[in-house]
Amino acid sequence: MNQGYIQASRALMIIAIVFGTFGLVATLAGMQCSKIGGENYVLKGRIAAIGGVFFLLQGICIMIAVSWYAANITQQFFDQFYPGTKYEFGEGLYIGWSSATLAIGGGLCLMCACSFTTPSEKIAYPYQPSSRGHMLSTVAMSQSVPSNYGKNAYV
């Protein structure tokens, strides 16, 4: 009775966990709201794209392990001369296929969203005026334009 595919599936799932951990760390480090990497958004985009690659590799490892296990279950189930216990598909296989699909989709979305652009192609955030009709500034109050509101108008 050769059960080597079970050990290989386990090894692929452990590798998938490692890829997922690296992908999570790289994606969190590559987010624009994180302090890691400073204000270099090109570097942050590349780090986030590397996280997407790790998620893609994670999904591929999960898909291979789960599909390989399911193929062997199917082969043993329909073999009339198989002497061992015959298993059927269960919730674990469906959860594995779903998580692999989500990991592959998430990795592809991260890789497409974090394109490798040069700093000259970076689009600046659009200016959004404040809701009170005047501009908030870090300039001292003596240099700013006087507003229509007194000090008691602020909450």
Summarize the structure.
The chain is mostly helical and 155 residues long.
Label this structure with key terms:
mainly alpha; Butyryl-CoA Dehydrogenase, subunit A, domain 3; 0% strand
Describe it.
The protein is mostly helical and 155 residues long. It has one domain: Butyryl-CoA Dehydrogenase, subunit A, domain 3 (Up-down Bundle). It contains three helices and no strands. The protein has helices at 4-30, 41-77, 91-113. Helix 1 (4-30) runs antiparallel to helix 2 (41-77) and helix 2 (41-77) packs antiparallel against helix 3. The longest helix is centred in the middle third of the chain and has 37 residues, at 41-77. The radius of gyration is 27 Å and the shape is elongated. The model has no long low-confidence stretch (mean pLDDT 80).
Quick one: biggest sheet? none
Shape: elongated
CATH top level label: Mainly Alpha
Structural class: mainly alpha
Number of domains: 1
| Amount of beta strand | under 5%
Helix content bin:
55-70%
Cα end-to-end separation: 77 Å
Secondary structure layout plus pairing:
Elements: H1 4-30, H2 41-77, H3 91-113
